[in-house]
Amino acid sequence: MRIIQPASDEKNSATSLLIIADDLSGAADCAIGFASAGHRTVVTLDSTRAPNTHAAIDVIATDTDTRRSSPEAAARHTVDAWRTLHTPGRRLYKKIDSTLRGNWAAEVAALQPFAGLAIVAPAFPATGRTTRGARVFVNGSPLETTDTWQLENAGQRADIAERLGNAGLSTAVLALDAARDTRESLVRAVAMHAMRGIQALIVDTQTSKDLALLAQASAAMDEALFWVGSAGLAREMALLPDLFGASANGHAASHVSPASPAPSALQQSGPILVLVGTLSAVSDAQCAMLRDAAGIAELVVAPAVLRAGPEHMQWPALQARIGAHLASQADLLLRIGRDDLFDPAQGAHLSTALGHLIAPHFGKIGGLIATGGETARAALHATGIDSLELVAEVEPGVAIGRPLDARTREGHAHRPCIVTKAGAFGTAQSLHAAWRHLRDSTYV
């Protein structure tokens, strides 16, 4: 492997960070730690329309929407995003799913020739995801035994090294023990593997302390490298006090949000619309808790209606019913049902239709909670929103943002609060916590 050394003004002095994710909730989940640490952080649905040159933005996360693409298309779109958004001094973090969903291996392999050594650590111990022997464990059980893996990857092995090897990368595994290892020993180990020509170094991490040590050591290294991980490693990186050094102009990178609106400008009245497109036991439990604890009305949309779209005979009446409910200022839980024709591959199509179903009523809402990356992306795309500025976090995996550009509602700026949440994440209380946070705060 030829390690590509960065230019002298980039070496060991990041001025900003680029996060490339394959779905929207993952992009927000990975980026929110930086917003919480005081860095101005933006999530964009379209890298070609991102605010790439804005000097006040410390972290930009882009969603390539490639989780269900072919590996070849996913690799191509990922590299296109990197080429569009990479600038001198901007380092790279490739966000992957902590349960290895999607085309992450092909995407990492495509980025490696441009970005150098891949430091691979998908663990997120705070949510029960750990790695040992280059294998993922969920709450102590092998990933292959979980419902999430069986739903989409039945019969396949959840082996990180094997998947990266099949994508054409030379790999090695580094066991990490924060109680024994030091930053200096880890720097030496990573440098040794880079000299050996390793292209992807998988770092076994089982605790947040492990991830913190990895973040500290790798961020200070001179070698050209990029990070491959979930929100777990990203959160530890966000806590580094010197992650963003001096900018090209010699000024310290922004640790505040000077261009962010004042709290009073964030207030937005209106009902909260909760969209749930993820068909999983986790989301079912979260919806039940929201209904029971909040007394919120629920409307289940039959998949047949969404498959046919506006041509379905029930579409106009359903759309009118949603509009009337929101016009009454009542919160609404809108979710996709399940039928005998259910196919996980239809998720994007169903979510897109759901987005079009609510688009005419977007101006009525004060807050939107979207569970599932495909659902969140579809809702924002249908309502013409390209980018969100992250402003707060409810709990790990639940990020709050605002449209970067205001829309018009009755002649006034309309920037409803938008919460994104990964569908398979969280406890039974997570969805209710997000709703409660919006309802009790000044956001809506």
UniProtKB/TrEMBL annotation:
Xref: InterPro entries: 4-carb_acid_sugar_kinase_N (IPR010737), 4-carb_acid_sugar_kinase_N_sf (IPR037051), NBD_C (IPR031475), NBD_C_sf (IPR042213)
Top enzyme class: transferase
E.C. numbers: 2.7.1.219
Top-rank taxon, per record: Bacteria
SUPFAM superfamilies reported in the protein's UniProt record: YgbK-like
Gene3D superfamilies registered for this protein in UniProt: Four-carbon acid sugar kinase, nucleotide binding domain, Putative sugar-binding, N-terminal domain
Residue stretches making up the Four-carbon acid sugar kinase N-terminal domain: 17-236
Annotated GO MF terms: ATP binding; kinase activity
Family recorded in the similarity comment: Belongs to the four-carbon acid sugar kinase family.
Protein name stated in the entry: D-threonate kinase
Highest classification ranks of the organism: Bacteria, Pseudomonadati, Pseudomonadota, Betaproteobacteria, Burkholderiales
